[in-house]
C-alpha cells in the first residue's frame, strides 16, 4: 500500500470514531433539546409579557367611556335637583337703561326697575354708578339724576354689566341668585350664593 492510503486508514479509524462519536452525538442531541425547550419557554414568557402589556391600553379604552358617562350622569342629577343650573338659568335679564337729557343733567329713568331686578340696595348701586362715571347724583322719583349731560346709553349698559359681575353674579356657579351682605366685624361686603352656598368678599366702593 502506498503511504497516502496508509495515512487515510489511520485517520479514518472507524472503531475509534464509533466509540468517540456516540456520546458527543447524544450530548449534542440533548443540548439541542435543552436549547429548544429553553427557546420555547422564553417564547411563552415573551407571549405572556406581551399579553400583559396589551391589557393596559384595553383597560384605558374601557375606562374612558365609563368615566365620561359617569360625569354626564352627575351633571344630569345636579341639573334635575338644581333647576337654576339649566342652560340660560344662570343669566339675569336686565332691561336696557332708559336715559334722558335734562339740560346739563342726565336722568336714568328706569333706575329703580333695574336695581330691583338685581335685588341690590339702591344706595349701593348709586354709589357705584357715580364713582364709575366720576360725577355726582341723587335718587329722586325712582330715577337717578346725574349732574352731567355727557353720558349716553352705552355708558350705563357697561356699568350695569360691570356691577353684576362684581356684586351680583356668583364667581363659581355664575348664578345671579346671591345676597350682598356686610360683615359687622370686618366691615367688608360679602356675596353669598343661594345656589352653590359659596361666598366671597367684594371690593368696597370708594366714595366720589
From TrEMBL:
<dbReference type="GO" id="GO:0003743">
    <property type="term" value="F:translation initiation factor activity"/>
</dbReference>
<feature type="domain" description="Translation initiation factor IF2/IF5">
    <location>
        <begin position="89"/>
        <end position="199"/>
    </location>
</feature>
<feature type="compositionally biased region" description="Basic and acidic residues">
    <location>
        <begin position="31"/>
        <end position="47"/>
    </location>
</feature>
<dbReference type="InterPro" id="IPR002735">
    <property type="entry name" value="Transl_init_fac_IF2/IF5_dom"/>
</dbReference>
<dbReference type="GO" id="GO:0005850">
    <property type="term" value="C:eukaryotic translation initiation factor 2 complex"/>
</dbReference>
<protein>
    <submittedName>
        <fullName>Domain found in IF2B/IF5 protein</fullName>
    </submittedName>
</protein>
<dbReference type="InterPro" id="IPR045196">
    <property type="entry name" value="IF2/IF5"/>
</dbReference>
<feature type="region of interest" description="Disordered">
    <location>
        <begin position="14"/>
        <end position="59"/>
    </location>
</feature>
<dbReference type="GO" id="GO:0001731">
    <property type="term" value="P:formation of translation preinitiation complex"/>
</dbReference>
<dbReference type="Pfam" id="PF01873">
    <property type="entry name" value="eIF-5_eIF-2B"/>
</dbReference>
<dbReference type="GO" id="GO:0003729">
    <property type="term" value="F:mRNA binding"/>
</dbReference>
<dbReference type="GO" id="GO:0031369">
    <property type="term" value="F:translation initiation factor binding"/>
</dbReference>
<keyword id="KW-0396">Initiation factor</keyword>
<comment type="similarity">
    <text>Belongs to the eIF-2-beta/eIF-5 family.</text>
</comment>
<dbReference type="InterPro" id="IPR016189">
    <property type="entry name" value="Transl_init_fac_IF2/IF5_N"/>
</dbReference>
<keyword id="KW-0648">Protein biosynthesis</keyword>
<dbReference type="InterPro" id="IPR016190">
    <property type="entry name" value="Transl_init_fac_IF2/IF5_Zn-bd"/>
</dbReference>
